[in-house]
Structures are given as C-alpha cells and as structure tokens.
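Thread: "does anyone have the structure for this chain?"

Original post by V.I.:
We have the sequence but no experimental structure in hand. Need at least a predicted one for the grant figures.
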Amino acid sequence: MTTNKRLVKKIPFVFAGLCLGILMLRPFSSVAQAMAPEKSASAAAASDVQLIANNIADNEDAIMLSQKAVERAADSRIKELAQEMVTDHTAMLYSLEQLATAGSGSSGQGGGNIQGMPQHVSEINDKLSKLRGSDFDTLWVSSLLNLQQLKYDELTRQKETVRNPQLK
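Reply from O.Q.:
Generated one for you, tokens below.
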C-alpha cells in the first residue's frame, strides 16, 4: 500500500518531467528538419527545375514516337490517336519550356527520361523502325501504354514534393 501511495505522489513529477523533456527536444528536432537538405527551399527549387527538364525530354520523346506512328501505323485509329498525342504533347512541351525559361532564364533542354522505364525510348524507336503493319501497331501501342503508365506513376509521386504551383 505504501508503494502505491509513493507512486501516486510521483506521477505529477514524472508527467511534468516528460513534458519538459519533450519541450526541450522539440526545438532541436525542428532545427534538424529545417537544416535537412531535401527540405530546403533551394533543394525544392532544384527539384522543380529537374522535374521540368525531365518532362521536357519525356514530351519530346512522346512526340517523336507519336510522329512515327502518324507516318507508319497501319490502323487509322492509331494514326488518329498518335496525331492527338503529337498535338497534346506539343502543347505540354511549349508550357514546360515557358516554365523553364521563366525559372532559369534559359531555354529548357531535356535532361532525362522516365525513372524505372523498362526500355529506353531509342530502343523502342529502333524496334519500331524494323516493323510494319499490325506488328508496328501492337508494339507502338504497348510501348506507349507502358511509358504513359510509368509517367503517370512518377507524376503522382512528384505531385507531393513539387513546390511550383504551376507544376502542380
């Protein structure tokens, strides 16, 4: 019984000590967070610049592959879809180049491709160059579907980290 009474008397002091400890640690953790490079404003801006550069390259690749389909697809529906993709990706490319110019004062030069892409776009292009008819159509559609899915997944992830409201 006496042990319980002593514990009951110590609870307010233990609680106060825990609260004080938490308050004392809090400023250190916020300093650590503020100093983390991935959280800094310059790192966020650099990340946005890289996102723009990567998306410029990705749009250029989509335009190139789509133009090839406009010229070589056997199915008229694929030609029509490819032409829509050329139009849409050209508009996105223009917008991205405007953002790149506004942010850096230079024209946007593509700097990369989709992370995790199973095949490089030039490899797809080489394979497409060797095919005709329905074989071309099948490879073009499956390759573009894979590339677009990877791009969608990448943009979904990056939406959480991008700082520029125009990119969101």
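V.I.: this helps a lot. Residues 12-35, 105-118 have pLDDT under 50 and may be disordered.
O.Q.: and The two ends are 63 Å apart (CA to CA).
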